[in-house]
Amino acid sequence: MKTIFDPVSLGKLRLKNRLIRSATWEALADEDGHMSEELFAQYERLAAGGVGAIITGFTSVADDDHYFEGMARLSRDELIPEHQRLTKLIHAHDCPVIVQLALGEYNGAHRNMTIDSMSAADIAAVRGSFIAAAVRAEKSGCDGVQIHAAHGFFLSRFISPAYNHRTDEYGGSAENRARLIVEILRGIKASAPSLHVTMKINGSDFIRGGLTPDDCAAVCALCARSGLDSVEISGNGTSVPGIRAGVNEAYFRGLAAPLARQLSIPVILVGGHRSIDCMERLLNETQIEFLSLSRPLVREPALPARWKSCDRAPSRCVSCNACYSTPGHRCIFSR
Ligand SMILES: Cc1cc2nc3c(=O)[nH]c(=O)nc-3n(C[C@H](O)[C@H](O)[C@H](O)COP(=O)(O)O)c2cc1C
User: Fold this and answer.
1) Residue 21 C-alpha to ligand 1 middle, in angstroms?
2) Each residue's pLDDT tens digit, 44-94
3) pTM score above 0.90
4) From the CB of 236, is ligand 1 less than 6 Å away?
């Protein structure tokens, strides 16, 4: 019988439980990607709150990527000491750190470039920036990186037939659309071999002509064969509002459960986990091994510790999504 508090291995990483903080953008870095004191304070609270591992908010691999405000960055060596400080403070709570590496938009020589109009050199530049950022993550002492290929970010669009209509080796079949991610993955494995490499991907884009569950399965299988260590399953429309314990939890379960059966690597499921009962049923009825949470930890950074202390009441998050618009993405109900 599996429980959320089983000490478990995620690849080479040892986690004190199966709960993972899913990437949550805090909007607390400046234009250049320098982190604020408030950002460090948020991570201190999270790490002290007992979660098994932390995936950081999206961290851009490029200086000229302004897809969202306040993104942290790992696009320059001078940012390494700040990431070292972050890693150290999280490690002090026996909690591994996985940096979510993301590219929102690619601004090459021509802004507003589409995936279809990118040259081979543009694609190589994206590949290089992910690999270089991962090397910086390794130098910062991080335990892993997550390739952000979900939620309409650049790599999510690149693998999606709704955006990628290329006719070369990077377009067409799922294998071709996944080629850039596979190249990034292999590059990271070669250049930063100590890192756990995971990926966040849409189980479905939920748009006409977009990534389907079959496409997602094909991309994940290719990545698993190329060294991916685990995968986190999400979907577009990621933060579904109005989630209630025992009513509509774990809303991407139907996408993740078949993948967990098929894939040789651990599957992490995000989206709408609010009660221990629902999570433990998932662990025992499917082959999903890890559960990741975002809004519940915005509401209560110490939720894992509360649950462990025998107060098993569901998360107090009401899934209102107001946290998306508060300074530091704090919960409007938290004091
Ligand atoms: C304020 C906020 C910021 C988020 N930032 C990120 C992010 O940086 N990267 C990411 O992949 N998902 C991000 N998400 C989505 C969450 O990781 C998660 O997939 C989604 O909210 C569903 O999980 P939940 O029900 O536990 O909140 C964010 C969600 C919120 C509410």
Assistant:
1) 9
2) 999 999 999 999 999 999 999 999 999 999 999 999 999 999 999 999 999
3) yes
4) no
Domain boundaries, the chain: 8-329
Instruction: Determine which residue's CA is closest to atom 10 belonging to ligand 1.
Output: 23
Q: Are strands 196-202 and 72-73 parallel, antiparallel or unpaired?
A: unpaired
pLDDT digits (tens, 9 = 90+) for 107-144: 877 676 899 999 999 999 999 999 999 999 999 999 99
Q: Which atom of ligand 1 lies closest to the CA of 324?
A: 1
* Cα 331 to ligand 1 centre (Å): 13
Rounded Cα distance, 260 and 267, in Å: 6
Query: Hey, whose CA ends up nearest to atom 11 of ligand 1?
Result: 23
Q: Would residue 310 be called left, alpha or beta, if left means φ above 0 and alpha means ψ between -120 and 50 degrees?
A: left
Calpha distance 101→133 (Å, rounded):
7
User: Residue 109 burial by CB count (10 A; 0-12/13-18/19+): exposed, middle or buried?
Assistant: exposed
* Minimum CA distance residue for ligand 1 atom 20: 239
Name residues whose C-beta falls within 8 Å of residue 144's C-beta, 6 or more positions apart in sequence. 11, 13, 96, 97, 98, 99, 137, 195, 196, 197, 198, 229
- The residue written with tokens 């591992």 in the block is 53
Taking alpha carbons only, the member of 332, 334, 312, 310 closest to residue 320 is 332
In the chain, beta strands by DSSP E: 8-10, 13-15, 19-21, 53-55, 59-60, 72-73, 97-102, 144-149, 196-202, 230-234, 267-270, 290-293
CA-CA distance, 24 to 99, in Å (whole number)? Answer: 11
Is the shortest distance between the CB of 58 and ligand 1 below 6 Å? yes
Check pocket membership of 299 for ligand 1, CB cut-off 6 A.
no
| Domain range 8-329, CATH architecture | Alpha-Beta Barrel (3.20)
Q: How many CB atoms lie within 10 A of CB 310?
A: 6
